[in-house]
């Protein structure tokens, strides 16, 4: 058991395959929080896979379903939420997440993501002839948005889930840092 229980909500953001669901579940279990995954909640509500929603309704309608789901889930208490990889694209989602919990950005290299997602067919954005190129594009667009709302950025490269959780606990267990000048580096 952890030395101290982390208080409040935790929202995990990052590209698909960065480990949000895997790390989120483990974090919730250790800290007595309820785990939610916005993609899974959308699938449960609609009764179909995310890939099917993309096929039938298109990405824009999926994004609207995602916006509604995040607005709802952000109102809950004592949860860990794994968000969809593209949730941060919507400014309202960014506001909801930043306002209602601690946001953790799980950062993974494109190589790691390709390895981790190679057998999965339920990530419609990667069902393309050039998944690496697509991931590079998504990273370039989204890295600044993940960072914009992240209270903590965790590099997941060559770190197993247990190590990631210990690192997270160590960094989140510290008293909040005093406000600092914007990073000049
Ligand atoms: N730190 C890690 N080291 C090695 N493998 C990992 C790590 N984190 C996750 N994985 C593996 O990578 C795959 C993708 O992880 P996961 O589904 O948790 O990612 P995700 O961020 O939730 O993706 P998505 O946004 O598509 O839902 C899983 O098979 C998981 O077991
Ligand atoms: O990165 C994305 O835009 C997505 C990631 C997944 O979590 C799903 O929300 C969906 O496949 C879209
Ligand atoms: Mg997931």
UniProtKB/TrEMBL annotation:
<feature type="binding site">
    <location>
        <position position="39"/>
    </location>
    <ligand>
        <name>substrate</name>
    </ligand>
</feature>
<dbReference type="Pfam" id="PF01202">
    <property type="entry name" value="SKI"/>
</dbReference>
<keyword id="KW-0028">Amino-acid biosynthesis</keyword>
<comment type="function">
    <text>Catalyzes the specific phosphorylation of the 3-hydroxyl group of shikimic acid using ATP as a cosubstrate.</text>
</comment>
<keyword id="KW-0479">Metal-binding</keyword>
<dbReference type="GO" id="GO:0000287">
    <property type="term" value="F:magnesium ion binding"/>
</dbReference>
<keyword id="KW-0808">Transferase</keyword>
<feature type="binding site">
    <location>
        <position position="63"/>
    </location>
    <ligand>
        <name>substrate</name>
    </ligand>
</feature>
<keyword id="KW-0418">Kinase</keyword>
<feature type="binding site">
    <location>
        <position position="21"/>
    </location>
    <ligand>
        <name>Mg(2+)</name>
    </ligand>
</feature>
<keyword id="KW-0963">Cytoplasm</keyword>
<keyword id="KW-0460">Magnesium</keyword>
<dbReference type="InterPro" id="IPR023000">
    <property type="entry name" value="Shikimate_kinase_CS"/>
</dbReference>
<feature type="binding site">
    <location>
        <begin position="17"/>
        <end position="22"/>
    </location>
    <ligand>
        <name>ATP</name>
    </ligand>
</feature>
<dbReference type="GO" id="GO:0009073">
    <property type="term" value="P:aromatic amino acid family biosynthetic process"/>
</dbReference>
<feature type="binding site">
    <location>
        <position position="159"/>
    </location>
    <ligand>
        <name>ATP</name>
    </ligand>
</feature>
<feature type="binding site">
    <location>
        <position position="123"/>
    </location>
    <ligand>
        <name>ATP</name>
    </ligand>
</feature>
<dbReference type="GO" id="GO:0005829">
    <property type="term" value="C:cytosol"/>
</dbReference>
<dbReference type="InterPro" id="IPR000623">
    <property type="entry name" value="Shikimate_kinase/TSH1"/>
</dbReference>
<dbReference type="InterPro" id="IPR031322">
    <property type="entry name" value="Shikimate/glucono_kinase"/>
</dbReference>
<keyword id="KW-0057">Aromatic amino acid biosynthesis</keyword>
<dbReference type="GO" id="GO:0004765">
    <property type="term" value="F:shikimate kinase activity"/>
</dbReference>
<dbReference type="InterPro" id="IPR027417">
    <property type="entry name" value="P-loop_NTPase"/>
</dbReference>
<dbReference type="GO" id="GO:0005524">
    <property type="term" value="F:ATP binding"/>
</dbReference>
<keyword id="KW-0067">ATP-binding</keyword>
<comment type="subunit">
    <text>Monomer.</text>
</comment>
<protein>
    <recommendedName>
        <fullName>Shikimate kinase</fullName>
        <ecNumber>2.7.1.71</ecNumber>
    </recommendedName>
</protein>
<comment type="similarity">
    <text>Belongs to the shikimate kinase family.</text>
</comment>
<feature type="binding site">
    <location>
        <position position="142"/>
    </location>
    <ligand>
        <name>substrate</name>
    </ligand>
</feature>
<dbReference type="GO" id="GO:0008652">
    <property type="term" value="P:amino acid biosynthetic process"/>
</dbReference>
<feature type="binding site">
    <location>
        <position position="85"/>
    </location>
    <ligand>
        <name>substrate</name>
    </ligand>
</feature>
<dbReference type="GO" id="GO:0009423">
    <property type="term" value="P:chorismate biosynthetic process"/>
</dbReference>
<keyword id="KW-0547">Nucleotide-binding</keyword>
<comment type="pathway">
    <text>Metabolic intermediate biosynthesis; chorismate biosynthesis; chorismate from D-erythrose 4-phosphate and phosphoenolpyruvate: step 5/7.</text>
</comment>
